[in-house]
Amino acid sequence: MRLTVTTLALMLSATAVSAQTTLTLYTSQSPEIAQQTVDAFMARHPDITVEWMRNGTSQLMNILTAEQEAGGIKADVLLVADSINLGTLKSQGLLLAWPEAPLEGIDPLMYDADKTFFGTKISSTGIVYNTRIAAPVTGWADLFQDANAGQIVAPSPLYSGAALIHMHSLLQDAAQGWDYYERLNALGVVPEGGNGPVLKAVAGGQVKYGVNIDADVLRAKRAGSPVEFVYPAEGATFFTEPVAILAGTDQVEAARTFVSFVLSEEGQKLAAEQGYMPVDPKVASPEGMPALSEIKLMPLDADRAVAEDVEARARFTEIFGG
Length: 322
Hints:
Elements: H1 2-19, E1 21-27, H2 31-44, E2 48-54, H3 57-70, E3 77-79, H4 83-91, E4 117-118, E5 121-130, H5 140-143, E6 152-153, H6 161-171, H7 178-186, H8 195-203, E7 209-213, H9 214-222, E8 227-230, E9 237-239, E10 243-245, H10 252-263, H11 265-273, E11 277-278, H12 302-320
Parallel strand pairs: 1-2, 1-3, 6-7
Antiparallel strand pairs: 3-10, 4-10, 5-7, 5-8, 5-9, 5-11
């Protein structure tokens, strides 16, 4: 009888182990935000263990390329900063489409038309200014005045994923295009680095204005920095931190469960708690941010951006040197 009971216990233990699914996530979220996201998901789905690796989006793309060349991509799910890199993976056949993804009520601007990647939150790029030394502005036209020469900083699309989205969105806008960058150049602005140094320079009073991300500015403002964010009247560019399932995954159902979670009301409320505007309009924006319906967003065709990226980077370098 003891042998039978022991054997049965071992069988039940083996069944429990086999029922536990492991999902591998590659993400460009900050470590703190990534851990919050994974913890919330696993609390809701304790049968799925998420192992995650965090790096910058460009570095993650390099890792995926190396893994593919070495025999197979290890990630099941990607949660990264911008849609252009995911559009590149899509063009290479590396993303799994999910036509039945739970997208009810979400604006089609927030996800790929072929449903290979899905925006999870909205981060807008607009204008940050120092409230102690700068006059308020309402848009790019107000900012690009001769009086502001030498008083504007901006991140580079050759370095920052958000700035890359910003560039392509502007280039696809008939009213902006390359005139935006030509005007920056005329004012002596040389875009470089990422969004962090831009915000630091404005908050520290080294310059009056910067091109920056709303969530970052809001966090700095709450911490006491003399900064304010402006959603430009001409339209704010935006990125959606899209989530995607890798085509080679053997954990399709678990991956879909993860995607469903970040798009669910619970997942969208978590995004708002983390300081981001949700893609689901039914979920309220964080305190200090407008509702999605209250701002004008500048759309982006990610497939077009992928096709034009090499030429656009070359033109940018021609204007600003480098």
